[in-house]
Target: Glycosyl transferase
Amino acid sequence: MNKEDQLPFVSVIIPVYNEPDNIRSSLSSIVDQTYPETRYEVLVVDNGSTDETRTVVREFPVQLLVEDEVQGSYAARNRGIERATGEILAFTDADCVPEQEWLWSGVSKMHQADAELVAGRIRFNFSSEKTAAERFDAMAHLRNDKKVQRGVAMTANLFVWKKAFEEIGKFPQNLTSGGDVYWTRSATNSGMELVYSPEAIVNHPSRQLRPLLKKMYRVGNGSIEMWYLDDQTTAWRIVSGLIQFPLKVFQFVKSESSNKTERNTQTPSDRDPEQTIDVYLAAVLAVIALLIGRVVGLVKLLSRLLHR
Model:
């Protein structure tokens, strides 16, 4: 048996929905990893795409799975988990482009730290305009390094021993957002170890304003369902969450704007006061979208509970 055969077999799982260009970029990198090609498989789970996404996926030496019954990325990931043959499951998103050492770095960290879960670095790419929405997105989202400190992580860049899903169960597939946070919290609360690997890098495009607002709405909507799953749906919990989050966002923007340390980006952050004001304005719109999402989510939850 050679050394390659002793490496753990890895299943890379990527959900996709109507993202032909993104999935092409992502797969171009994933099939060209430094990790031995005989020691990993790639499972792309299409979640009901209506464009040429599936045609693009078939251009690559990967497995194309379909999840049409439940619309949602967590349902798609669960389908991938069911079909995966790897000892380790590596999750990323269709709009993420991993570095060539991504798999090596993530797997190595799992062994070095003897951890059940490893969260990798999500590095933002900016457009040439580097808009206020992009800068806010880079400051506020996909910070796996910060989330690991709270015992949670995101599936944009996450390595998990498959046996962890056998113990904890799969992702809550009906959540529109936050299912990864909910699941990783359950894992760490059960005693599993989650560590951060800055060397396991995926690149993610910063969002322009419209995608940012859609994301914030989805996060707000999903947070209500998460509170319900956590048995934290008291009136006080929901009201306090609606009130406190906007304050936290503005405090965060203020602290990040003055922070001199390296952020999760490929380019230095701007210090121009006018640009900082633009970021605040983007934050205001983002908070409004999030609050609308939470209100809509709360109405849906109450309606469902009343009609039981």
Observations:
- The chain has eleven helices and eight strands.
- The radius of gyration is 19 Å.
